């Protein structure tokens, strides 16, 4: 499949692409599981006495989260248990000098790749490989390691240019994410396969449902997608109300596909039987879908009866894949759906993949253990593409170089 860190010759100068893109609040980079996951690759390379330079991105130009990686170096060092130096240059003179000063076991984080003009344009790998960015950095190294699975659907220079000019290897995160996230497209399961579908990006998950319906026995729906399917089934929900801009545009984009899915695969699709909202006292309240006559409030979670219907389906499954939360779990009042489903998976001896940064965050927030799941993915867009069997450009380069 890939060459991995275990295939590296001793004493290499290694250029490593990570995905440390993180929330930023008031200029402060927030710690998250991406640092912990990538720490294994960094630690293994350092302990093997390689000379290591790291690349990563943060935000996009113009965004509030488009900041330097200086804070990232400190957070990563804490997780990896090794010193991580930082240089405020990606491939300028300062970066080259720092790279050449590396000694065995040293780790250096280069500045945000998206602060270079060459990084962001989506181009063919061959074009990126000839960029000043790649042509300047590559001669300083013996090998390139891609550990940024979650960014590997992007044809950016740091992801697709270097594998054409350096021997390319997969890091620990890359290997584990690829194997788990590709399972629904590549593995055969003897028992039922269930997919829990939620989140706010209905267009993404609807495309997944359309692509992999033959591989899934049951879809359990919630979140924005769940309401849109309820709307297609004739219920007065799944539409915007005053102050809301979540449903109508996605309905216009997807209603024909939703209606086709309900018509062709209605027996596979389980919809919420009740929905939760905030009552006049600020408390959680629930309403049966059948009793809703108009949408006059925001629904923030599936209801308890829905969880009671979904949980047995999950417990009887051989494999469960999750994409998206069933409700606004960041608010404890509306975590019942998401946490209830995750608890059912955790209690079940099945192959399970929880995908998407937001949903996986609920595991930590509500005291669940990652060890109770086969894989908790840190990928978003790449996870969606893997579920549909669509190739990831940077992954394909690792497989073919």
List keywords for this structure.
6-stranded parallel beta sheet; 401 residues; Rossmann fold; 16 helices; alpha/beta; single chain
Structural summary, described in words:
- The protein is an alpha/beta fold and 401 residues long.
- The chain has 2 domains: 5-178 and 394-400, Rossmann fold, CATH 3.40.50; 182-368, 3-Layer(aba) Sandwich (Rossmann fold), CATH 3.40.50.1260.
- It is built from 16 helices and 17 strands.
- It has helices spanning 33-47, 70-80, 93-100, 125-129, 132-137, 157-160, 172-181, 183-186, 202-212, 223-232, 248-265, 304-315, 336-346, 357-365, 381-387, 393-400, and strands spanning 13-17, 24-25, 28-29, 51-55, 85-86, 107-109, 143-146, 168-170, 193-197, 218-221, 269-270, 274-278, 284-288, 301-302, 319-323, 351-355, 375-376.
- A 6-stranded parallel β-sheet has the order 5-6-4-1-7-8.
- Helix 1 (33-47) packs across helix 2 (70-80), helix 9 (202-212) packs parallel to helix 11 (248-265) and helix 9 (202-212) packs parallel to helix 15.
- The longest helix has 18 residues, at 248-265.
- The termini are close together.
- 48% of the residues are buried.
